[in-house]
Specification:
alpha/beta; 35% helix; 348 residues; three-stranded antiparallel beta sheet; Aspartate Aminotransferase, domain 1; Aspartate Aminotransferase, domain 2; six-stranded mixed beta sheet; globular
Length: 348
Amino acid sequence: MSRVYLDHNATTPLRAEARDAMLAAMDVVGNPSSVHAEGRASKMLVERARTQVASLVGCLPTQVVFTGSATEAAALAVAQKDRHGGVFVASPTEHDCFGDWSEGTQDAVTGPALVALSGANSETGVMQADGLVVSGPSVVCDITQMAGKVPVQYGDGKPAYMILSAHKLGGPKGVGALINFTADDPQAILRGGGQEMGRRSGTENVIGIAGFGAAAEAAQRDVEAGKWDRIEKLRNILESALAAASNTTIFVGKGASRLPNTTCFATPGWKGETQVMQMDLSGFAISAGSACSSGKVKASKVLTAMGLGDVAAHAVRVSLGLETTEDDVLRFAAAWAQKLKKHEARAA
């Protein structure tokens, strides 16, 4: 029986469109900063991708700054804090790319501050603001998990900055973007070359950027076609099957507005890491939290901050993709239930 990949929030399989764009970009020899024909050809690939990403997130192409990752984009956003009061804050439920920079929480800081707020939590899938991008003149919104799964929609305004990553929506690893909605260009933290209109030095990863753009365009088509509606139904089928196998399992965020592909559940007494290893041996790839922290044997700080207490160490995340089938989720549920019975028998 073939393996089943159920960890799409960590990284997604490379889309065919992205692969084709990257292969074509490999044959373009010029440096995008060069003014000759070869350089202009390379520059055209970058600018096309900039337009494709801008279309996905609803901004102007000039507001897209390509980076090496969403983590770098977060650092670039945080570096602009002096324009927003000189302080940066993030809640305990934010990704470490923000949490490690935080100088407190919004409630604890008096006066203006740059505030990080995720559009959707990567571990639970819970979306803030009814699925809208969290907006405000001093907000940096992480849309890494939202982009390519749900429409990127705004309420009465837009945030100061957004961050996203190519490999979360079917593009290559190692390329991300900062979206700058402010009137001023961000001050670069990588200096020396003046690329990206002086906002991020270093020769652009043309191959990766081309893949990012193609993936963004394909992801936008899928969202507009409603393809994630089927995945939401599969997520609900999975949760029903798991609930039928265990009356003690807690589904985190169930009933709240969530990403269509994400379920996070905890079974008291059964360690998340143990579940991940047992399901891996059974042919299923899942996680015990964010990919940036799941390798560490400790309870999720996100779930702990949500008040789960000791149960936070017993949680796992299953995140589906567009290629996931009903057979995949039912096979997973059956295998998980079998491992649960063995665990309960040993604990008795």
